[in-house]
Amino acid sequence: MKITQVRNATLLLEVGGIRILVDPMLGAKASQPGFASERRNPLVDLVVPLADLLEPDVVVVTHTHSDHWDAAAAALLPRDVAVLVQHDEDAVKVAEAGFTGVIVLDEPTTVRGVTFTRTGGQHGSDATLAAAPRLGEVMGVVIAHSAEPTLYVAGDTVYHPAVEAALDAHSPDVVVLNTGEAVLPGLDPILMGAEDVVRVHGLAPDARIVAVHMESLDHCTVTRADVRAVAAAHGISASVLVPEDGDTLTV
What we know:
The protein is an alpha/beta fold. Helix content is about 20%, strand content about 25%. Strands 6-5-4-3-2-1-14 form a 7-stranded mixed sheet, with helices on one face. Strands 7-8-9-10-11-12-13 form a 7-stranded mixed sheet.
């Protein structure tokens, strides 16, 4: 298994001989408005060549917020690629962009020997979602192949019982966490942060944790240095990987 950190939550995975693109945000630096300031997102440009991202076998879209499925992804990806989404609303949005292989991941789905299973999550506290229901639903996904480690991508969620349930049910070997602790004005954080890496490690001490979704958006408050420092303070640095954009991890 290979995991390339592209930018933000965008990952390029090689699992069981297929290429999986997760949460594609492919637009140029500053191509969309900021979420919490006058700065425009993304804050950084792609360092992975765009051409390397445009021929995946499967695309996973955990939700269709613009930092996980942007206009560039909708315009550039092949129309016939399999796109796995969480529910009918997102399926309609992706299909309206011309994609013909949209699959709602309401049950485990196997593509060329790789099985994708939806997991739950919550994009903010109960109080945040009451104040900002537009944040909507999100999903995580477990990606499994008989000859590969099991990978759990938690998605845009705070630490939540659904995360604990996924760890318990699937015993993943690798856990990808979005740890930017994004904050919208006047609301609680809507993502995990550095301390949540420690909590997840406590539940899955044998798993490798990969921390992403940092330093690319104006509303993310936790940096890679923050995560590394917290991991070091708790003596778990060997279990926590914090890739830079463009880094490829081999598991």
